[in-house]
Every structure is written in C-alpha cells, then in structure tokens.
C-alpha cells in the first residue's frame, strides 16, 4: 500500500502549485492518477487536511455544480472558500486583472475562475503567484471533462477504446471532451449541425495529443454518430451568453435530441451523460434523462471528487 501511495505521489507531485487552465495541462498518467486519488477520497480510504488553506472563487457566470463542488471540496480538505463575486468587489468597477491577481495571491492559496474569455483566465494566471483553475470559459471546461471520464471509467472499468458520441453544439464541453479523451485513448465523435461544429484548432490540438490509438472525428449526422457508441453525451443547445439565440437554435438543433430513437442506435448497454443543467424536452428527453442508462447525477457528484483531488495536489497535500 505504501508503495502504491508513493507511486501516486511521484506522478502527482509535479502538479503542486501548477495552474489548470486546459485539459492539456495534464498528461494521461497524471489524469489517471488524479482519478485514483479521487476514488480514494470518494470512498473515504484517503483523508487529506490542507490546514485551513483558502480558495478564492471568481465567478462571472452563474453556477450551481461548479460553485458548490469547489466549496465542499475545500471544506472536506480542511480549507475554506471566499466568494469574490465581481459585482461586490473592485473587479466590477474596472480594477485591472494584474492588480487583482497580485493582491489575491497575498490572501488566497488558489483561485478558481469561471468567466467568458480564456484570455482573461490566462491573464490571471500570468499575474498570480498561486494556482489558477479553469472553472469554465467559453473555450474549455476541463474540470467537467475530468468528472466525465472518471464516471465512464467507473462504469466500464477501462477507458482505452471506449466510443463517446457527443450530440449538439460544438462548445467548451465538447472541446474538453476531445482533448481529455484523446489523451485517455477514448474515441470521441462530435456531431453538430453545420455551422456549429467544434473549433477546428481544438480538433487538431486533440488529434495531436492522441494516445493509445484514440480517434477524434467530427460529423453532422446524429444517426451515423450513434454507430458503436458506448457513451451518448449532450449539452444545452445555447450556452450562457447565447440566450438570445435560443429560439433560432431550437429549430436548427431539433434533430440533435437524445431520445429513444437515437439511444436504440447506440451499443447495447450504452450510458447517457449530460453536464447539466438540462433543458428537458430539448437536447434530451425526460425519458432519457431519467432512464437507468443515465449517469448524469454520477457525473455531477464526481465533480466534487476530482476537484478535491486536484486541489489537494495543487496545494501540496500529497
């Protein structure tokens, strides 16, 4: 057991005091080691006390799962969180990020930032002397993809060779699923209407990171996308900041709904995933979301465990 713990520590220690801005900031060994630590924390086989460390939360976008999971993760690690809502701090009055980042680095031990621009997140990282975590930007949602692949590993036992078909908008969740999946040997297919495909640069980046024979592909036909799928994944058709496009997108995406017709085309035993919140009856039916094949609430729970593992590592708890 001591040998196993030592091996885990040797793989994860390099992440101490590091930023997590993109799924590509980790390698496959580190991701799998984080999963192992997350499972130990989840089952109570491992306890880590960070000694009253402080995580600052800067959230420009609404949040339930991300906010609460980070707060609970820090509490379980013996630490605490400080809500740095831009509306009630000087950020809302235009204080430069380079000033805010340097000041908060003197008060907090890490920052989790949920904002629109990846560039803004990177500016915080440039000026901070503490770890910065991507809690969601318009480009990526890397903490979500960690929870997703931990959930898939728990279900199938193995990640290499798993076929994941994502149906819907080629958004930040799709981007992180491709990047993280490529490193874990998962075959990721992103199926979107024409004009709503995933960022071509992210697709090429994911392909360049491919390990264990992982295949990354893009298509526009949801019926073909279901062939051999073991994981059916979807997300809202209009992300935060795109609400004015909602009605327009409903018409364009109407054939990209995860319903019984699509589910029957997937492999027997396929699971259904959604990062939540869900618009029941739009991107996914009530029947699909509440079915025995649905693992959406396992995903939501695993946000807590992977983020607890990540924070423990970044803050020197392992």
From TrEMBL:
Swiss-Prot/TrEMBL keywords: Amino-acid biosynthesis, Arginine biosynthesis, Cytoplasm, Transferase
Binding-site list for carbamoyl phosphate: 63-66, 90, 114, 141-144, 275-276, 303
Gene Ontology cellular component list: cytoplasm
Domain Aspartate/ornithine carbamoyltransferase carbamoyl-P binding: 19-154
Presence of the UniProt keyword Transcription in the record: no
Alphabetized GO MF terms: amino acid binding; ornithine carbamoyltransferase activity
Top-level taxonomic group: Bacteria
Matching InterPro entries: Asp/Orn_carbamoyltranf_P-bd (IPR006132), Asp/Orn_carbamoylTrfase (IPR006130), Asp/Orn_carbamoylTrfase_sf (IPR036901), Asp_carbamoyltransf_Asp/Orn-bd (IPR006131), Orn/put_carbamltrans (IPR002292), OTCase_ArgI (IPR024904)
UniProt-listed SUPFAM superfamilies: Aspartate/ornithine carbamoyltransferase
Residues annotated as domain Aspartate/ornithine carbamoyltransferase Asp/Orn-binding: 160-312
Binding site for L-ornithine: 172, 235, 239-240
A GO biological-process term: citrulline biosynthetic process
Localisation: Cytoplasm
Protein EC: 2.1.3.3
Catalytic activity: carbamoyl phosphate + L-ornithine = L-citrulline + phosphate + H(+)
Membership in a protein family: Belongs to the aspartate/ornithine carbamoyltransferase superfamily. OTCase family.
Name of the protein described by the UniProt record: Ornithine carbamoyltransferase
